[in-house]
Amino acid sequence: MSEPQTLFDRLWSAHEITRREDGGALVWVDRHYVHEGSFHAFMQMRERGGALAEPGLTFGIADHYVPTRGRDRAIADPEIAAMVRTLETNAAAHRIRLFGLGDPGQGIVHVVGPEQGLTLPGLSIVCGDSHTSTHGAFGAYAFGIGASEVAHVLMTQTLWQKKPKLMRVTVDGKAGAGIGAKDIALAIIARIGADGAQGHAVEFAGGATAALSMEGRMTLCNMTIEAGGRCGMVAPDATTFAYLKGRPYAPAGAAFEAAIEAWSALLSDSGARFDREVALDAGTIAPIVTWGTTPDDALPIDGSVPDPAREGDPVRAKYLRDALDYMGIAPGKKLTEIAVDRVFIGSCTNARIEDLRAAAAVLAGRVSKVPGLVSPGSTMVKRQAEEEGLDRIFRDAGLEWAEAGCSMCLGLNGDLVPAGERCASTTNRNFRGRQGPGARTHLMSPAMVAAAAVTGHLADVRPLLADRKV
Amino acid sequence: MQKFVRLTAKACPLALPNVNTDQILPGRYLRLPRSPELGRVLFQDLRRDAAGNLRPDFPLNAPAWRDAGILLAGRNFGGGSSREAAVYALYEAGIRCVIAPSFGDIFAQNAVKNGLLAAVLPEAEMLELAAAIAADPDMPVTVDLEQQTIARGNRSFAFTIDPTSRNQLLNGWDDIDLTENRRDRIEAFKAADRERRPWARPAQP
Description:
The complex is a heterodimer of chains A (470) and B (205). Chain A is built from 16 helices and 19 strands. With 470 residues, chain A is of the alpha/beta class. Chain A is globular. In chain A, 61% of the residues are buried. Helix content of chain B is 35%, strand content 15%. Chain B has a 4-stranded antiparallel β-sheet, with no helix packed on it. In chain B, strands 2-3-4-5 form a 4-stranded parallel β-sheet. The chains are: A alpha/beta (470), B alpha/beta (205).
């Protein structure tokens, strides 16, 4: 009998073309997503006189710099306009299908790939964006790369890689009402640290993972990079196949049935070995928010921020002082006493239809005490939300309903949190200055952002859901 | 690609952990093409206050370290965003080697592709080296990739780096050339793969 294999072993061996003596392996790339930020790579290809190897496997998506308001007007900032235009020019020159501004399929790359059926189980998927780990939710080998590697993929459709170590995170038990995939992700990051999965391919397993929708699995895999992981993945199952059925670029009819048969073999055998195993009980996870400037500064909402005076390690104590100082929070303060200035619902982490429904369930019939922006993950998500009437709930609550893009997650398009302001955000990074110079970010689930909106401070969403059907 | 074999330069200690690529190069500079300008905005929001003045307590602002070629960093340096421009910014500012207890995976890959050495040194030895440098900032440090050593005065430390990255840096290998040399294997893979995974190509909508 052959050695038990992991899901990742299977994905890796299906893509390895050849290997050097020093361990460097050449791997095949099934899907390559490019965006405005890929301009360095197109320039490298031009300087080298190279040609695009596989236009049919390369897809362009305008997301990082696109405006979320006033799309009927020209982009005011000439540099931002140039970023969007350069992607259009490169896509046209190399015959790349572009989901650009004005396209009904436009949106954030990590939302668009799956909803178009471009992202499938068993594929290798790369993009010049660290949150490419998202696509692993389908049982794909998906990871972010830098500009030189993007250029290499453009010219060869391959990449030189080392096989990463393997980690399995098993989440069992049943998550309580009001607990979402974001809470599970933040609980894992708080447990293992912002570099806890460095050098590892991470497989999420267990009953609570299997119980997640595709949207939830994408949130979980998306946040793998915030634990430093090379990629995250979930073995495909009936939930995966049901999501993919009928998607524009997914196989159809008999080809789909045949694909399901192949995809069903993508799992980890019992007895398969991982370099590291981590286990969590979803039943013990409370709603989680971040208080500091790295994603592992995450605590249950009923907690208090740390007090550097009570920290024995001087290096850690200095970090805590600096983080609290940047965040403008007094040592030891209760999380629920932290007032927010605005909210943001959006990003590749939490702007899919289920995320918008979760936030709307809290906001319905209520009013936000602070201003806020809702940017759906894609134009298709936006349209569906409008069909369901969610846009009215957000607008009636006083929030702004905008177009799809990366938006206020990192503010490249000008959607910034002003310096010194505090934002409850469904995004993925609470880094210093991430949402704008001097901006203060608290990460949490869409339902928790809605709770912060209606109370004006960080708040436990569960009492607000007590009288609601979720 | 730029080779890296040996470097003797001043080393600047930056003791902060988790310095992610958003700190190395803030997002608002990502629209810039590669140019010396990126070197001038390296660590912009750590290096300067909101008014644009240099913060005196930021190590790279100290006169002794303005021309440092080596950076001593904390754990998990370069995590977060995949922006390769973070490496361009370091390189344009004259940094050719970063020594840290650990690196973000994508940053480490990007560094190799640009001839920048990311050398891993355990935390305790980092602290010893940083303390010695703080006591005498002008004494240079020699990083030798062949020997995998970091030497300062008569003290020497062994650092680690994965063998593929070491090979690539020492030889200045060009990835595209390496790949083109294996064109026949790629074509054989493609032919077999179409049979094995007919579902892997996108359906035409």
